[in-house]
Fold this sequence. Notes:
Layout: E1 2-12, E2 15-25, E3 30-34, H1 41-48, E4 55-60, E5 63-64, H2 70-76, E6 77-80, H3 93-103, H4 108-121, H5 137-150, E7 155-159, H6 167-179, E8 183-187, H7 191-197, E9 200-205, E10 208-214, H8 215-219, H9 222-227
Parallel strand pairs: 3-8, 3-9, 6-7, 7-8
Antiparallel strand pairs: 1-2, 1-4, 4-5, 9-10
Helix pairs in contact: 3-4, 3-5, 4-5
Amino acid sequence: MIRFEHVSFSYEKGKQVLHDLSFxxxxxxxxxxxxxxxxxxxxxxxxxxxxIKAEGRVTMAGLEMNDANLAEIRRKTGFVLQNSDxxxxxxxxxxxxxxxxxxxxxxKEEADRKAAAILQQLGISDLKDRYNHRLSGGxxxxxxxxVILAMDPEVILxxxxxxxxxxxxxRIVLNxxxxxxxxxxxxxxxxxxxxxxxxxxxxxxxxxVIAEGSAEQILRDRxxxxxxxxxxPLRYQ
Length: 237
């Protein structure tokens, strides 16, 4: 479903961010992408969306990343951004929820039903008619996740999905990620979240794959994590 083959990228000459990355994520897998600040996690996700062009070969949703396939890749891929302000662009939560489904051919009635079901699932039906610019950080995060679910993507990329959330909404998001269909890649510093929702983990440092393995195997390894400026999940401390 997702494949990186010898992928490298530099934002400017002489400052390489990704170094010869190769990894695979199978259809239906839930994978955690972990690493300290500046490790390259957000850059990897930008490459996956075609927001930046890297050297090497990238496959997304079974399609090779190129100009001809880019629109189809983005149609099949949902991305929960780290900053929800960059994701919500319609006046109200409801308008954002129905925008993509209706643009992809869904009737207004179908889009209304889907929006209502997703808002209820996330426990945020009260946000339906709220103006996005008046939402709190946590409310925007929940609304942004709802917008992605409305697209029924085959691949879901989530960059720090629980940032700005209180414990109650964090639990809702955790359960929502668990119940999602499709392939999921979750980048987060919240290693307890990664342990709860991911089957496998890829550890990145300075744009290189340091380790891959089951979530339990990687996240129990104190020496490995501390060597790359990470701490054990609370569960293992």
